[in-house]
Design goal:
With 140 residues, this protein is mainly beta. It has a single domain, classed as Beta Barrel (OB fold (Dihydrolipoamide Acetyltransferase, E2P)), CATH 2.40.50.840. Helices cover 6% and strands 36% of the residues. Strand 1 and strand 2 form a beta hairpin.
Length: 140
């Protein structure tokens, strides 16, 4: 029996450290401009709407919808071989920014454009948790 290969861990930078700290605490953080209120992701040193440098990290709702997706049947590396098939999706957050992640906790064939999703986190190490999304279950 072989040991599964380790997946490469993300390497936080000065600009992305607040995002990864949020993930480690299982909360989604994005930037918001305190000058105009615009939300943005990926992290930048200035607001992409008004060019202000008054951007700060805030906790996002973690809710969004699937804008687009694909199902991966061939792993990108051997480290992902046990994960196939898996879904890579572009998710639009309630706050507006779009980000790419995986859709988990459902059959890949059930993923659909417009599907409501919520953030979940997968702990890959003591310091790194990775953001993923799962379908929002309809309340009865």
């Amino acid at each position: 029996m072989t040991t599964p290969l380790a997946k490469a861990l993300p390497a936080p930078t000065g600009e992305t450290q607040p995002f990864w700290e949020g993930c480690r605490n299982h909360e989604l953080r994005i930037q918001q401009c305190s000058a105009c209120g615009h939300y943005q992701f990926y992290p930048r040193l200035y607001c992409t709407a008004c060019m202000s440098e008054q951007v700060e990290w805030v906790r996002a709702s973690g809710r969004g919808t699937v804008l687009s997706f694909t199902v991966v049947y061939r792993p990108v590396t051997k480290a992902f071989a046990e994960d196939v098939p898996y879904v890579v999706a572009l998710v639009t957050l309630e706050e507006g920014p779009q980000l790419m992640s995986n859709i988990v906790e459902c059959d890949p064939e059930q993923v659909a454009i417009g599907m409501p999703v919520e953030s979940v986190f997968e702990d890959w190490s003591e310091d790194i948790a990775v953001l993923k999304f799962r379908p929002v279950l309809a309340s009865v």
